[in-house]
Amino acid sequence: MSLLDALNEPQRQAVMATDGPLLILAGAGSGKTRVLTHRTAYLIEECGVNPYNIMAITFTNKAAGEMRERIDQMVGYGSESIWVCTFHSTCVRILRRYIDRLGFGTNFTIYDSDDQKTLMKDICKRLEIDTKMYKEKMFLSAISSAKDELIDPIEFETRAAGDYVKRKQAQVYREYQQALKQNNALDFDDLIMKTVELFKLDKEVLASYQDRFRYIMVDEYQDTNTAQFELIRLLALKYQNLCVVGDDDQSIYKFRGANIYNILNFEHHFPDATVIKLEQNYRSTQNILDAANAVIANNQGRKEKRLWTDNGAGDKITFEQLDTAAEEADFVARDIARRVRKGEYQYKDCAILYRTNAQSRLFEERFITANIPYKIFGGVNFYARKEVKDLLAYLKTIDNGQDDLAVRRIINIPKRGIGAASINKVALYAQEQEISFYDALCVAEQVPGLGKAAAKIRPFVLFIQSMKAKAKLLSVTDLLQEVIETTGYVRELEAEGTDEAEARIENIDELISKAVDYAEGEEAPTLNGFLENVALVADIDSFDENSDYVVLMTLHSAKGLEFPNVYLAGLEDGLFPSYMSITSDNSQAEIEEERRLAYVGITRAKKNLTITSARVRMVRGQTQYGKVSRFVREIPPELLSGKIYEPKTKEEPIEQSTFQKARKAFRTVPSYGGSGYGKEVGEGYGSTFRSSKATKPVYTKVENQRDFGSAGGALSYQVGDRVRHIKFGDGEVMAIVSGGRDYEVTVDFDKVGTKKMFASFAKLKKI
Ligand code: ATP
Ligand code: MG
Q1: Residue 220 annotated among the catalytic residues of the structure
Q2: For the CA atoms of the chain, what is the radius of gyration?
Q3: Is 615 a catalytic site residue?
Q4: Beta pairing, strands 22-26 & 274-278
Q5: 8 A C-beta contact, residue 383 and residue 389
Q6: Taking Cα atoms as reference points, which of 134, 254, 135, 119 lies closest to residue 180?
Q7: What's the confidence (pLDDT) of residue 713?
């Protein structure tokens, strides 16, 4: 079968239009990504283009990985030399080679948002800014938006004119950039901006990349920002072989500076552009598509598209309104368990999508007790954990002593008796001498006023220096082990003996596994390469298709993906669309952005879509009463199975009896013993690597149980027996208490201690 046989007519045209600018503008699931992979194969196999000359840019590493895999399957020889990357990793690769032309060292560090905050705190302190009035976050977000638009500190200042706050921001921006440079560090936005700067400054470098990337393709083009557009424009300037695919209805990153005009004005930027539309959807059933079409039709100012499919009407969309968020999670867990039991789906066919990360917690609790394997993407990143950051800071210090933040992070971890006052003195000295913090530590004896503290600093410097020497000989894994050993990091945690310390040790083990993985996957592994690799992995990237687990992620991370069975959770006004969007001054536009997100969510589903909402939900410890989301009400009722309950009046959103029931139900929600996940809504709880030990569900008595299945009647174990739980491992049954239609079983697990769980959910096996 030829490459082109697997495509419909417009898709074929898009694949064969190899030369000159090409815009493919099409709705969800119409095969845009598929066109890109086939086009790549076609260029190589049919047009004889050297794979080395092809670049495909995507938004997430996960998407890049998938694309690479698909291309590998189609292209025989040489597919590994195709450049399939995200914007950020593309820029890192370019900057690692050439950033010295901008006065940075090529071993620069990449700062994550935590590092940025720490740096910003320092700057505000230095500039004596009242951070109660002007928050660090405000400055960081102003700087980030400026970078998305390629506005440097000088231009920022010019534009600020007489505006007081803007002038303050300009000053902070300038200081911030200087500090980054001193630390030989870049933030995420810098990666793109510095590459554009490099291309504009150095024609020779630009020309070499233009010659290399003769054919450029960009997926999810609707979410590019001005800086990314400029990057692409410069690269494509010489040969003009630029193919972009996107869907204006799926533009969901305005808050990150995505510029919808990049797609709407493509024909203006590239007057010779060919435009191709795709309208047949291959992913979803007609019912799902009709729902998506009906919802998105409420947006103004969009390019009209109507999707159709040959897939048949399919099942109706299930809508289920629950009393509480806990019941919502329960409902979804049961539904998945039921469908898997019936053989309808595997776990991996199922995805739960939600608006904010924090919503994942209840699902996670439910899944643990119900023994449903799951993985959470997004949320608190593994690499944002304290213990992981500490150890990485050691590695960064060993690799590049110029990163002040990393050095300051670990100077007193473990405790070396070096106080804040001493650290400030060193920092001040470093600033005066215009040297790095680490270099100042090296000459601690010369720092005025340090006194005895200098002697305490000495062993630290000696240790780092010896490690620097060893770094040339040891593998990353050995180096990491040696840091752990010498600093006594794990020993200290072991001595602590708490569950939390245990979980931290597990995370450290995970980091070691990561180092091993890295070394195995690289031809020439280096410490710097490892740190770079770590800086670029978002959680989404650890998505592993081969394992069977339910996927939990935010709607934003679900872009471009597809699942047979999708649950959209928390469809309540105030949650989705968000409270901010409803109350914003610019409400119309913000709700349209939320609606596009709803459209993305609905169109992820291939066969089954279930939408859920809760009448009562806790948000930041406060009870909220949510009305069913307007997006659900925009779906024609005939497509839905399940009724929308509407409150009678605005003043009394929920009847008293329902309210009381809901309150009661809340008391039965498992509460978390563990701490450390107390994040704001939107920042969330989840992580791919979360250890089950870190979350300690503690159950209060459960009343009003409903159908708990049949397992309760015939337990295969009794008190004193040894049992096995899929997540918690082996343990001894301590107590079995009848609780209505189910049994509450207390098990003392060897590794995680005592847990109470429901027999029908826990699926304990006697061993
Ligand atoms: P999104 O807007 O969500 O990114 P998309 O337009 O990129 O979607 P794809 O992911 O490329 O769509 O395709 C959606 C699904 O339809 C995939 O499973 C793909 O394999 C399938 N598909 C696309 N075109 C065809 C075709 N001509 N024949 C058979 N299957 C197709
Ligand atoms: Mg796609």
Answers
A1: yes
A2: 28
A3: no
A4: parallel
A5: yes
A6: 119
A7: 45
Q: Which long-range contacts (CB under 8 A, 24 or more apart) does 642-646 make?
A: 642/318, 642/319, 642/320, 642/321, 643/319, 643/321, 644/319, 644/321, 645/321, 645/615
Options 66, 115, 122, 220, the catalytic residue? 220
Which residues does residue 171 pair with via DSSP β-bridges, in sequence order?
A: none
Cβ atoms of 57 and 220 closer than 8 Å? no
Annotated binding-site residue? 629? no
What pLDDT, on the 0 to 100 scale, is given for residue 663?
Answer: 33
**pTM, rounded to two decimals:** 0.73
114 is known as an active-site residue: no
Ligand 2 is an ion; its neighbours by CB within 5 Å are 32-33, 560
CA dihedral 661, 662, 663, 669 (to 10 degrees): 120
Calpha distance 307→18 (Å, rounded) = 25
Tell how strand 605-619 and strand 563-568 pair up: parallel
Q: What is the DSSP letter of 587?
A: H
Interatomic CA distance for residues 297 and 24, integer angstroms = 20
Provide the strand spans (E) within 162-260.
Answer: 185-187, 215-218, 242-246
- Pocket-testing residue among 35, 249, 282, 563, ligand 1, by greatest number of atoms within 8 A of Cβ: 282
Asked whether 226 and 149 are in contact (CB, 8 A), the reply is yes
Cβ < 6 A, ligand 1 pocket: 6-8, 11, 26, 28-34, 247, 250, 282-283, 560, 562, 603
58 is catalytic: no
Q: Which DSSP state fits 347?
A: G
According to the annotation, is 29 in a ligand binding site?
yes
Global ipTM: 0.99
Quick one: pLDDT at residue 382? Answer: 64
Domains contained in the chain, CATH given: 7-97+194-279 (3.40.50.300), 108-182 (1.10.10.160), 316-372+547-637 (3.40.50.300), 380-539 (1.10.486.10), 719-764 (2.40.10)
For residues 688 and 697, give the distance between their C-alpha atoms in angstroms, rounded to a whole number.
Answer: 18
Element at 375 (helix H, strand E): strand 374-376
Closest-CA residue, ligand 1 atom 21, reads 282
**Secondary structure class of 439 (helix, strand, coil):** helix
List of the chain residues with pLDDT < 50? 538-543, 545, 648-713
Residue ranges of E strands in 203-326: 215-218, 242-246, 274-278, 280-281, 308-309, 317-324
